[in-house]
């Protein structure tokens, strides 16, 4: 049974105006209006965002804690204090740590960076606080953690050390004031900034940019170099995309600028990583390059234990050091793949028993907790619903798991509805983590599925495919593909456009890869124009040569051996009526 198609209802007059005034295809105009971009001037800034248009995080409409964080860093600089930087072990935590360390050192601070070990548990612990105190730090900045780590912050305060928390995870309700000297988190209830979707690395960039302005006004750079914060944007793009932060508003502006900076390959570590991942030189970089090629490699050391090799790579000062560190990451990534393959096979077998549920939760002993997030994402691809994968530890009697979302379900809220079954949980709408007592896993699985079902309010696999636009296949050319690409980067908060075309003739089809993907050559029935198409994970839906089909797709520009051509990335297909 095929899902029905519906065309998204939009303001047709606004769409026609954008087509007329911007000279774009009607499909592109419909996509813009569907994203709430209605006025031509707003559309121009959406298509070509500028860093100068970022809203100020300071002042009445700013991010709570922002001014206090700047003041404390200026104080540390004036007093010549040693500053400890502590980051989580994932890509957001590591890129945030690298960004802050590089900039604060460049302006003259003595910085001691450290990133977490997965085997030591999530977050900033009391042992971490003691370590920084023993190294003579008078200020600690936590990156991508700290909001919930009150005991460790109190331990630092008891030794006379201030802590700035730079985090973007949900802020739990609490009766007492947070002990950090500055809690910089866009989810604070008293934060007035209109955008709350920053990853920690984006927050860090906004912080150092404002700090730079403050120091320039104070004449700090009169006798020393004034480092350009824009050189840090490659780190912002990598951390934001890898953390699945919403790619809208400020994040979209930062990521677009960051991808352009990343393509310059000026940071030795990221340049070496791009080469090792066989990312073609000269090709415009996009969110796929980060999500599928850079992100897993940077995450690999932290998934297996110590994330320090990833930090060393990002901070490598030359190509020789970068080349050595990238091989460490590649070795970790290979080991991660081996562990992952075993867990995927077992998780798929267990998931089949829950295929009828609105959400899936699988758990076993012997699974490495460092790969459960990737496994959850793979199960989401297969089943099209939120998935939790939990690694059980017989020694502790607890399981640590990761949750990934599908269909726009806020998995943090879903876990909140199950909080009575959990030891702890955290994260955000697209991805979350949890700890559960082994004896509560079955109850959690039932409650998690019920919470997701309630969130979807009865929506299921029969939900219509909502099209942003419908075109004739003959209209799909390189100009349209480039216009659609200009709406990127795509991801949470800015999903890839969904375009439909009817009555396409299949001139050729074959299974590719491991046989699970479908490669087709399609022809427009009215114009005869042909397009290449790839349908991932649809190998079992081959319509056969000569069939006439309707397709839902995203047009892309495929780059191969210096040449570019249009290719359709198929989302759905069905026989034409």
What does this structure look like?
The protein folds into three domains: 57-322, inorganic pyrophosphatase (n-terminal core); 355-456, Roll (Diaminopimelate Epimerase, Chain A, domain 1); 465-575, OB fold (Dihydrolipoamide Acetyltransferase, E2P). It is built from 18 helices and 18 strands. It has helices at 12-22, 26-34, 40-47, 66-79, 91-106, 126-134, 150-158, 200-217, 233-242, 249-263, 268-276, 287-304, 308-314, 319-351, 372-383, 411-416, 441-456, 478-485, and strands at residues 5-7, 82-87, 110-115, 137-143, 162-166, 182-184, 360-365, 387-393, 398-404, 424-427, 431-437, 465-467, 469-470, 499-512, 517-524, 530-535, 548-560, 563-575. It has a five-stranded parallel sheet, sandwiched between helices. Helix 9 crosses helix 12, helix 12 (287-304) packs across helix 14 and helix 14 packs across helix 15 (372-383). The model has no long low-confidence stretch (mean pLDDT 93).
Compact description:
The protein has helices spanning 12-22, 26-34, 40-47, 66-79, 91-106, 126-134, 150-158, 200-217, 233-242, 249-263, 268-276, 287-304, 308-314, 319-351, 372-383, 411-416, 441-456, 478-485; strands at residues 5-7, 82-87, 110-115, 137-143, 162-166, 182-184, 360-365, 387-393, 398-404, 424-427, 431-437, 465-467, 469-470, 499-512, 517-524, 530-535, 548-560, 563-575.
Which helices and strands appear, and what pairs or packs with what?
Blueprint: E1 5-7, H1 12-22, H2 26-34, H3 40-47, H4 66-79, E2 82-87, H5 91-106, E3 110-115, H6 126-134, E4 137-143, H7 150-158, E5 162-166, E6 182-184, H8 200-217, H9 233-242, H10 249-263, H11 268-276, H12 287-304, H13 308-314, H14 319-351, E7 360-365, H15 372-383, E8 387-393, E9 398-404, H16 411-416, E10 424-427, E11 431-437, H17 441-456, E12 465-467, E13 469-470, H18 478-485, E14 499-512, E15 517-524, E16 530-535, E17 548-560, E18 563-575
Parallel strand pairs: 1-12, 2-3, 2-4, 4-5, 5-6, 7-8, 13-14, 16-18
Antiparallel strand pairs: 8-9, 9-11, 10-11, 14-15, 14-17, 15-16, 17-18
Helix pairs in contact: 1-2, 4-8, 5-8, 5-9, 5-13, 6-7, 8-9, 9-10, 9-12, 11-14, 12-14, 13-14, 14-15
